[in-house]
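thought: user wants a sequence for this fold. calling inverse folding tool.
action: design(structure=
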């Protein structure tokens, strides 16, 4: 039962959904007026590009024996998916979330691109960082920055995210998917770009 719960946590909070959660969090908290059709168009585009497309590409890579599982356990398995993800995020920055429209989301996704590129470079050198922790900690940093930027109380949201972050770390350790060092490296890789890029829109 415990293993099932921990595996469920890893699956439910898979890195693929974190960009969408960041988008939804922003739309739910920002005091800026954003027309509903614009929000729906952005959400639809992000779902297609960051969830559906990567899943389809995963099945393609699995079919040609380039990956074994969606968790990308080895550094060798990570190379192609991370490279593809960099291209997808770059496409989003060029076509979906330009800085002239919603600058906060633009830099959020730019931070995701930086984290993904860092993870790819680490994988090339056979260094493994937790992609789960990269995604979750990057989202947490973005949420904190949004709260500071708009002077809104999101203490409850931050507390919930911290609990989720702890649950993800526990699940990855218990399932022997990562070491403590890989989790810490993941947090550092996720937080640093978001923290650095805050200065461009805060």
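)
observation: tool returned 202 residues.
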């Amino acid at each position: 039962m415990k293993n099932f719960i921990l595996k469920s946590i890893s699956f439910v909070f898979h890195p693929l959904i974190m960009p969408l959660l960041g988008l939804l969090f922003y739309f739910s908290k920002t005091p800026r007026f954003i027309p509903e059709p614009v929000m729906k168009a952005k959400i639809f585009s992000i779902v297609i590009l960051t969830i559906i497309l990567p899943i389809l590409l995963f099945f393609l890579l699995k079919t040609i024996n380039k990956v074994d599982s969606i968790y990308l356990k080895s550094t060798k398995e990570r190379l192609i998916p991370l490279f593809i993800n960099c291209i997808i995020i770059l496409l989003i920055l060029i076509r979906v979330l330009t800085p002239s429209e919603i600058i906060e989301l633009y830099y959020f996704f730019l931070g995701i691109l930086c984290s993904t590129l860092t993870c790819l470079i680490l994988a090339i050198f056979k260094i493994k960082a937790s992609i789960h922790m990269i995604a979750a900690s990057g989202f947490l940093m973005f949420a904190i920055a949004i709260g500071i930027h708009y002077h809104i109380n999101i203490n409850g949201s931050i507390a919930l995210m911290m609990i989720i972050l702890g649950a993800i770390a526990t699940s990855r350790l218990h399932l022997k998917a990562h070491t403590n060092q890989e989790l810490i490296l993941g947090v550092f890789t996720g937080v640093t770009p978001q923290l650095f890029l805050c200065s461009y829109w805060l």
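thought: summarizing for user.
answer: Here is the designed sequence. The helical segments are 2-12, 18-29, 36-63, 75-95, 103-124, 131-150, 155-174, 180-197.
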